[in-house]
Amino acid sequence: MASLRCFFFTCLLLYISSPSLAQQSFRPKALVIPVAKDASTLPYLTTIDQRKPLEPVDLVVDLGGRFMWVDCERDYVSSTYRPARCRSAQCSLAGANGCRDCFSASRPGCNNNTCGVTPDNSVTHTATSGEVAQDVVSLQSTDGRNPGRVVSVPRFLFACAPTFLLQDLANGVAGMAGLGRTRIGLPSQFVAAFSFHRNFAVCLSSSTLATGVIFFGDGPYVFLPGIDASQSLTFTPLFINPISTASAFPMGEPSAEYFIGVNTVDPYTVLEASIFKVATEVFINEAAAMNITRVPGIAPFEVCFSSSNILSTRLGPAVPSIDLVLQNQDVFWRIFGANSMVEVSTDVLCLGFVNGGSNPRTSIVIGGHQLENTLLQFDLATSRLGFSATLLGRRTTCSNFNFTSNA
Ligand SMILES: *[C@@H]1O[C@H](CO)[C@@H](O)[C@H](O)[C@H]1NC(C)=O
Ligand SMILES: *[C@@H]1O[C@H](CO)[C@@H](O)[C@H](O)[C@H]1NC(C)=O
Ligand SMILES: *[C@@H]1O[C@H](CO)[C@@H](O)[C@H](O)[C@H]1NC(C)=O
Known about the structure:
CATH class of one domain: Mainly Beta
Number of helices: 6
Mean pLDDT: 86
Structural class: mainly beta
CATH architecture of one domain: Beta Barrel
Shape: globular
Bound molecules: 2-acetamido-2-deoxy-beta-D-glucopyranose
CATH topology of one domain: Cathepsin D, subunit A, domain 1
């Protein structure tokens, strides 16, 4: 992993433009958005109000995504939409070069003399080119306990995509919200607009019926009954993958993903083949010692067990815990049954790790299932990832943020 340790992205973030992007005199300390787990397609979804008049836009959360992209081809109506003119400051912030023209009727996503980037559907690994644009977005501020006043970013930068890029995303979804480590990822733009500390935190719910949360800005991050998950975090350096993991990218572009590829688009953790082999062998042996019976795998899972000998606990099925050892033996991420096992039927539980083959672009990609009910704080100023032990151990969950507004 040593080759992945370069910590240069803090420098990149210093270029962020003026805080005057925010129009209000009220200065929020943090923002909060809900994140729901989609029952049919598994990725996590959020809703952000955009455009004038404001319209709720459903987006897939992409932790490693480089920016927000939305379908501008269908139903994009807004009096505040402005394409980024080629060679403008917005284009350079977006890392876009060159000038684009569009040879059909002018509309959002189709204008002359603009710049383009490559919006990426990271679920289907499809990318295309799209106009860089800005429009207003509105979100709820928070004191860390409840949502508060609504605040706006009038000139939020994003990319327009054609409707076909939505293929295989859940019904009603209009794009993806990229939280990646770029100058126009959501975190960087909110930091710039509101002069936040360069932090954001993600807490994914394991239930399709209850929402988790993303916070932009500092904690506290409080879950009922009054548990501040920003306390008691373990920190590890954020690694940068020097090779982009996007479906299409300019040569030499580093990955916008965090850490060893913490990802919300892949539902399950993907391990490089040799790591997968070692990790699953140990797990299978420990499970056998607990009298847990192995049964044939069920795709995409190779390692499955009969649930008949597996007890249920507050931390999920009682199976061997898995420690992802991070920068040294003392810093590890302990994964209990609730995050390691997937119930594929009433009598079969499978280890929710997937064999990524012998040549994946990143050796370990931690999937959404393994992140559920864990608070992850991405501290961009110090290049650290803070992670809590499973909140189940503190008798709360990521779906216990109190969404009743106290504005
Ligand atoms: C862009 O410019 C070309 C050439 O002048 C013109 O044919 C086309 O209609 C313009 N497109 C838009 C979207 O205005
Ligand atoms: C496993 O089963 C064997 C035989 O039934 C029994 O002797 C042993 O105590 C069991 N071990 C555990 C950890 O339950
Ligand atoms: C949630 O927040 C509201 C507004 O502050 C408060 O009135 C309510 O009691 C809270 N709910 C719980 C369960 O504490």
